[in-house]
Write a structure and sequence with these properties.
InterPro entries: SAM-dependent_MTases_sf. With about 70 residues, the protein is of the alpha+beta class. Helices cover about 25% and strands about 35% of the residues.
């Protein structure tokens, strides 16, 4: 997945921003199975190692968002 993020970093404009909304990797009554989820912490680390600046928030204990901004390398 890191290769995909590196490619997105290269394609995104310098002031580019995007939003990720996903299910936290915790048991919940709704949403995909746990083995189809990625935790906000794991995703955040992958994004940052690909050159992005991130801001994480939670809409619910089982739903998170990450605001992703391009860092200039």
């Amino acid at each position: 997945m890191i290769k995909v993020f590196q490619d997105l970093h290269d394609m995104l404009k310098e002031d580019g921003i995007w939003l990720i909304l996903d299910w936290e990797k915790v048991e919940s009554e709704m949403g995909p199975p746990l083995d189809h989820r990625i935790s906000s912490g794991d995703l955040d680390r992958q994004l940052q190692s690909s050159g992005f600046h991130t801001i994480i928030g939670h809409l619910h204990p089982s739903v998170y968002y990450i605001v992703v901004r391009k860092n200039i390398r």
